[in-house]
Amino acid sequence: MLQQSKIVLKGMMQQELQGWCKSVGETSFRGIQLFEWMYKKGVSDPNLMLNISHKFRGFLKENSILSTLKLELKTESQLEQTTKYLFKLADNQFIETVSMVMENRHTVCISSQIGCSIDCDFCATGKMGFNRNLSVGEIVDQLIYVRNNIANPITNVVYMGMGEPFLNYERVIKSAEIFHNPLGFNLGRHRITISTAGILPKIKQFINEEQKFKLAISLNASNNITRDKIMPINKKWNIQKIIKEVKQFSLLNRRRIMFEYVLMKEINDSPENAIELAELLSGINCKLNIIPYNESVGIYKRPDEKSLNIFLKILHERQNGYRILVRWSKGQDIAAGCGQLVYKEKIAN
Ligand code: SAH
After folding, report:
1. What's this model's pTM, rounded to 2 decimal places?
2. Cα of 19 to ligand 1 centre, how many Å?
3. pLDDT tens across 261-313, in order?
4. How far apart (Å, rounded) are the C-alpha atoms in residues 258 and 255?
5. Backbone phi, then psi, for 187, in 5-degree steps?
6. Active site residue ranges
């Protein structure tokens, strides 16, 4: 149920909380305490906020919302230490979040929108259509929930769940700032990766603002004919426009941008495609993540081992500036792999 008379505090930055505390007759120091309780300690029950007066705890209970998600379903993989969470939001919509533990790494893949408007033909979320942007609180609460639920400390966050983060730019950056803040999650900026399908004006903004979070761009094709087909956004901002921007960035800056390339059988996995891709990235200081496709919706298939190996061999032979990495998705037995996040039960109904 939406409690409209209450103010949603989850998602507010430190200064906003300080301002709100002052506006209700408290000191601005209370805002710092609230920030720590919510984000560093992950507490959303005012009764547990021990250094805050009884009176103000009562006021918080009456007048504020400190938690935006309810767990609907939790699914654990039998194959890996991967857990998928389905959360229900105040307006009865659903989002998914995935936690992946591998040795010392604990990566959480979070959603930034309900559905997605980009409509990549191979992506399950794209097939849902777009519903709405998530609030800062709804983005941050995903990580808070996982941190409270899984003992392994979170080491990395990736905005690679449902949605296009750069179409919810301000809130995504705010949430990433909370993850980075020492009184929040205290994660280094290089441990926070924002992945975009290629919203060029926002890539420019990100670069101009000198944001230090990691940037990943979903390239997924080596030429515009293929990219136009699988990612309609390419008709607006094509490969050359994106590469030009990234080249300038890599000259200005020592940080590496990451390109993601989802490898799909007979779509973008030929030796010619590998040569084109090597050509495109030649001389750019970047990382290339090859992601064998997770079969989910539509006609797309994962390439066989042989063509994957030939593709990689060509990239390695022609390697110039870029680093290559193959990323096998985790949690496929629970449909928690890249691009598989979609609330299936809803579709089944
Ligand atoms: N909209 C953003 C972030 C969400 S998708 C973006 O496009 O980057 C995160 C990554 O998963 C993207 O690189 C996307 O190309 C990839 N992806 C989508 N569906 C996939 C699938 N079925 N198998 C493997 N990767 C997929």
Report:
1. 0.95
2. 38
3. 999 999 999 999 999 999 999 989 899 999 999 988 689 999 999 999 999 99
4. 10
5. -95, 135
6. 96, 338
